[in-house]
Amino acid sequence: MIEFSCADFSFPLLNRRQALGLLHILEFQRIDIGLFARNPSYPPSALMEAPKEFTQCVIEDLKSNELQPADVFLQIGNSSAESSANDPDLATRARNREVFKRVVEFSVALGCGHMTGLPGVAHGDYGRDFALAASEAAWRIEQCSAAGVVYSIEAHIGSICPDTASAQKLLALVNGLTLTLDYGHFICAGEQNAAIHALLPFASHLHARGGAPGRLQASVQENTIDFEGMMKGLCEVKYEGAIALEYVWVDWEGCNRTDNISETILLRQRLRDMAEAHRQRSETSAPR
Q1: In the Cβ-directed half-sphere of 112, how many Cα atoms lie within 13 Å?
Q2: Are 190 and 207 contacting, i.e. CB atoms less than 8 angstroms apart?
Q3: Once rounded to an integer, what is the mean pLDDT over residues 28-44?
């Protein structure tokens, strides 16, 4: 049975406890934690300065709102280019690794078995940049595997993997690499749903929100993502991860033009209905 989570960073105008309280009101049992430099509720700097205190505070806040973490999503810099995983500067990559190790410990302490990171960006030398993205992803997988955590990358607009072809290329290079798959980034760039469906076997986590060509985020009514085909594909690959409702509110790519609470409720119900229909069909067609 597919579980649904919600991103804490869908509601950035609320403080941490307010956002967790809202997720509880919306009857979510799972949460995606955005450990972002730009997220005042969960900045990596706070974890690095006081790891035990920060971790214990988060554990207590989650418990008081009856929430379990589905994913810890790490973005060290204020943008995808700042402190990127494949930064050409060796000292920057070394600092990133120290942060990553601490975040693995944080995830384990929270009882979260999944982490997401960004693959890196282009820094002017594509061959070198892609190779660094692959080597850093491989190192991160080693760290996570040793701790019993699954690691994935989110291929996204502006990254070293902006399309399905480059995502497939990185997956082929890095043994054990999985995806936090967000159809919206590919649909926005004009790719076809069928090409994105082909990535489902590599997905260990999913981000879901409406999207359309030229629009990274859209209402359910305006959405052109083939969620029906996505749910069918997840059923076929026997997907066991969570689907995170990930509407965001940020002045980037027009992602501040939706009513996130309403759209989260509407899309979750639509996905639940699709999942239940596929479950029933599967049971009906199973040999007796």
Answers
A1: 30
A2: no
A3: 95
What does the pLDDT look like over 174-200, one tens digit per residue?
Answer: 999 999 999 999 999 999 999 999 999
CB distance 215 to 188 below 8 Å: yes
252 has pLDDT over 70:
no
Q: What is the CATH number of domain 3-285?
A: 3.20.20.150
Residue 11 pLDDT > 90: yes
Residue 210 has φ and ψ, to the nearest 5°, of: -65, 150
CB 115 within 8 A of CB 74: yes
What is the DSSP code string of 120-180?
Answer: ----S-HHHHHHHHHHHHHHHHHHHHHTT-EEEE---TTSS--SHHHHHHHHHHSTT-EEE
pTM greater than 0.90: yes
- The ranges assigned to domains in the chain are 3-285
**Cα 51 to Cα 229: distance, rounded to the nearest angstrom:** 42
Task: Determine the Cα angle at 204 with ends 151 and 33, to 5°.
Answer: 65
